[in-house]
Structures are given as structure tokens and as C-alpha cells.
Amino acid sequence: MPFRMFNLILLIIFGYLLGSLPTGFLICKAKGINIQKIGSGATGGTNVSRALGWGWGVFVGIADVLKGLIPVYLAINFLIFDWQIAIVAVFPVLGHIFPVWLKFKGGKGVATTVGVLFFLIGGQGILALILIWFFFLGIFRTVSIASILMVSFVPLIAFFPTYSFAYCILGIILAVIIWWAHRENLVRIKEGKEPKFKLRKTT
Questions:
Q1: Which tens digits make up the pLDDT trace of 181-190?
Q2: Is-contact 85 75, C-beta < 8 A?
Q3: Structure confidence by residue, pLDDT tens digits, 11-62
Q4: DSSP character for 20?
Q5: Which residue, 98, 18, 23, 29, is CA-closest to 57?
């Protein structure tokens, strides 16, 4: 049991540190751009696409997914209980949103949330979330609205493939975190100032 608890603590730390790697910030910095002074100031793929185009935005999004996927994969292999895996799954998302390297100002956590869920809800669950995201994006033409509405379905989708109460609670926690991370977006949505989705050529 002490060995398992050591694994849990180690994976929590690893998950946070990996999640906090500011991929989008570093890529933009290498190109002479401070992403925190562009658009929403977030370091995730959506905002990177505003600065560098959708090619780089997608690349950063994939990197952010991997930051969530890797710690949970390790947790599944080195931990026993669902609640332990669920705890580990929260920390890459927290690391992405609150990176210690950037004074705790990072991205919105959506891509990393998809990453942590991949091994927990499977490909069908992830596909369902992606379809929900595109559905709301098509209706509202706003990435932030599509994202926060998509994560609202996470508790339900996380529960039914596994019937795990721990994963359902994880889904609720992740949804709350993502909604909170989008609080400024919600204000802009209310004021009608949130940017609409549009494709842009990569630079």
C-alpha cells in the first residue's frame, strides 16, 4: 500500500508538471510572439491559431492532448483503484490552466481534458465528445461555447462506458474547471464580443 501511495503522489506531480509545459507559449516565443498578449491571452491551440494560423494551432492542440493522455496511461498501469486514476487525471488539466512556469496563467484545458479522458472512456466516448463539439460549433460558430457545452456532457459520457462513480465525479470536476477557465469568455459571450470561428491560412 505505501508503494501504491508513492506511485499516486509521483504521478500527481508528474501529471501537473507535464500538463504545465507551455507548448503554445514556447512555439510562439520561438517565432517572436508573446501569445499572452494576443486574443484571449491563453496558451492553447485556439489562441495559437489566431497568432500563427490553424496549422500551428492544431499542432499545439495535439501536444496538449498528449499532456493529458500520458499521465493517465501511466496511472492505469501503475495504480489499482478508479479514484486514484481519477485524481491523477485532474492534475494535467490543472497544470495546463495554471502552469507554474507562466505565473499560473495558461490555457483553457479543453484539449488536455480530452487527453485525460481518452483511456477512460475509449474511442467511442471521445468520438461522441468531438461530434458534440462540432455540433455546437456549427450552431454558435464560437469555439468557447462549443467547448464549454461539450464538457458539460463529460460526466454522463464518463459514467456509462465504465459505470464508475469515480469517473463520473471526475467528469463533474473537469466540467467545473473548464467552465471556470472560460469565465472571461462567458463575459464576452454575454456582451456579444466573443470572436466567431473562422478558418485562417497558416503562416
A1: 999 999 999 8
A2: yes
A3: 999 999 999 999 999 999 999 999 999 888 899 998 999 889 889 999 999 9
A4: T
A5: 23
Q: Are 106 and 96 in contact (CB under 8 A)?
A: yes
Distance of CA 131 to the CA centre of its chain: 16
Give residue 105's identity as a one-letter amino acid code: K
Q: Is the pTM of this model over 0.70?
A: yes
Length of the chain, please? 203
- 3-state secondary structure (DSSP) of residue 48: helix
Q: Hey, where are the domains in the chain?
A: 2-191
Cα distances (angstroms) measured from residue 7 to each of 23, 80, 113, 165, 169: 26, 10, 22, 22, 22
Tell me if 18 sits within 8 A of 70, measured CB to CB.
yes
Residue labelled with grid coordinates 472512456? 121
- Are 164 and 117 in contact by the 8 Å Cβ rule? The answer is no
